[in-house]
């Protein structure tokens, strides 16, 4: 899982990183194309590196050789900024990973 970059947390930058990953021989990571959707100008600069690092640290099944795999990492901020926010990771489906940050004590507040 990629980390929620500290610089992004401090700057209150969130967004979604879409990665098209070319799978090489034996499931190796080949070329990665990315697209970032963020309301912040620094979104791509801050959120892409940890997402790509997570992909490079991953293992892809060898039977995906020659295919393009899509990975989506959604970074979301909730609540007011705090010095030590709690960062959580959740899988919305086997294909979607969400990384949230919310202040300590706000977990569950306003959620149904």
Quick structural gist:
With 112 residues, the chain is an alpha+beta fold. The protein has one domain (6-102). The protein is built from two helices and five strands, in the order H-E-E-H-E-E-E.
Instruction: Specify Rg, calculated over alpha carbons.
Output: 15 Å
Terminal-residue CA separation: 26 Å
User: What would you call the shape?
Assistant: elongated
Order of helices and strands: HEEHEEE
Beta-sheet strand percentage? Answer: 35-45%
Written overview of the protein:
With 112 residues, the chain is an alpha+beta fold. It has one domain. It is built from two helices and five strands, in the order αββαβββ. The protein has helices at 6-11, 43-56, and strands at residues 15-23, 29-37, 68-77, 86-93, 96-102. A five-stranded mixed beta sheet has the order 2-1-3-5-4, with helices on one face. Residues 104-112 have low confidence and may be disordered.
List keywords for this structure.
single chain, 112 residues, alpha+beta, 38% strand, elongated, disordered C terminus
